[in-house]
Design brief:
Radius of gyration: 19 Å
Distance between the termini: 47 Å
Helix content: 40-55%
Structural class: mainly alpha
Strand order of the largest sheet: 1-2
Strand content: 5-15%
Shape: globular
Largest sheet: 2 strands, antiparallel
Number of helices: 6
Length: 150
């Protein structure tokens, strides 16, 4: 299961908003620059995230974007599902009406695909934006500390 580039950008934008919580609304340009996201593409993504209830915006001179929900309530899995659809290692987990698998109900691999999907969900749903911000701060602190030498 590959996470699309668009979804990766959405996750990075949300991470940046979570990381800068308390700084007020963040302009799209600031998010784009800090997270290396093409600005025009980011604007489309932020609009989509706004429709999904992940971000909100404020207009005006001091305008920008901010998280619409607490960072601890937004998981990586939720964002992936919103941007890319259901999680799953194969397309048959994402079937739409009229696109059924000819082996439905008889596929020997169904158990494997189900187990892989559940593993992906456990990993992605276990991480919130707050967790990611904390991990980043911890690695920054560790990198800033001089090594202890006697």
């Amino acid at each position: 299961m590959a996470v699309t580039q668009k979804c990766q950008y959405a996750l990075r934008a949300l991470f940046e908003l979570a990381r800068r919580k308390g700084d007020g609304p963040i302009p799209a340009g600031g998010i784009a620059e800090r997270q290396a996201i093409p600005r025009r593409f980011l604007e489309v993504i932020l609009h989509q995230l706004r429709q999904g209830g992940f971000v909100d915006s404020q207009r005006g001179k001091d305008g920008g974007f901010y998280l619409a929900r607490p960072a601890e309530d937004v998981t990586v899995g939720e964002v992936i599902r919103f941007m890319d659809g259901p999680l799953g290692p194969v397309d048959c987990h994402k079937e739409r009406p009229g696109q059924g698998c000819p082996l439905r109900g008889e596929c020997v691999f169904k158990g494997v695909w189900d187990e892989a999907r559940q593993a992906l969900e456990r990993v992605y749903d276990a991480r919130s934006l707050r967790d990611l911000v904390r991990e980043k701060r911890r690695t920054e602190l560790e990198a800033a500390e001089p090594p202890y030498v006697i």
